[in-house]
Structure to design on (218 residues):
């Protein structure tokens, strides 16, 4: 699973790395070393009008468009890739092609045996860009909440000793297909929902202070 993440990179660097369009202003996001569900994430979508990559601030924890209220009785910050197209909470977003890139510096996972937290991410200097889905929920009063979920898969050899699940991390070559910039069948999209190469990742132990979301520093 993936229940904590971080993004402390400068937006100007992110804009260059992800080839974001100059048509859109930078989202109002502060650097964070401890992002928890219900907090804001930086997501990238394909703009329907221009076709360009658009940065969007989204609430972490997808609220389906059909939900009666934003507070759900089940968690939606992760979506299992194996059933994402059929799970009621996510199938609407999947079938509508509401796919996004969730931009992070990495995530945290806890080892069950001793509750030791580890920071995990791609190799030094690389962003950890995850496969996500998004949706829009509208309240009876007209309030609109844009939210996202991170798709998960089985753990690779690096993470397996810590946890049996990990987020789907997409290589840069897969971003165009996931965003809909190039054609891809449903089978081709589902084929992307696989463990990232262990050789391209690293992990290291961090202080147990990360368990409290109020602790947000390097």
């Amino acid at each position: 699973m993936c229940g904590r993440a971080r993004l402390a990179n400068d937006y100007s660097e992110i804009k260059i790395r992800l080839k974001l369009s100059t048509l859109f202003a930078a989202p109002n996001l502060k650097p964070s070393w401890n992002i928890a569900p219900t907090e804001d994430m930086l997501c990238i979508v394909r703009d329907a009008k221009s076709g360009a990559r658009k940065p969007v601030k989204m609430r972490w924890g997808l609220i389906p468009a059909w939900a009666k209220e934003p507070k759900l009785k089940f968690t939606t910050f992760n979506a299992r890739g194996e059933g994402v197209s059929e799970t009621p909470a996510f199938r609407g977003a999947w079938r509508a092609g509401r796919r996004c890139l969730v931009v992070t510096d990495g995530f945290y996972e806890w080892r069950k045996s001793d509750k030791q937290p580890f920071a995990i991410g791609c190799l030094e200097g690389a962003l950890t860009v995850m496969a996500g889905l998004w949706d829009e929920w509208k309240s009876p009063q007209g309030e609109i909440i844009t939210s996202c979920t991170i798709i998960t898969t089985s753990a690779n050899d690096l993470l397996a000793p810590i946890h049996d699940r990990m987020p789907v991390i997409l290589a840069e070559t897969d971003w165009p297909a996931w965003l809909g910039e190039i054609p891809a069948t449903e089978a081709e999209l589902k084929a992307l929902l696989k463990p990232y190469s262990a050789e391209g990742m690293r992990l290291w132990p961090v202080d147990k202070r990360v368990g409290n979301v109020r602790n947000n520093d390097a």
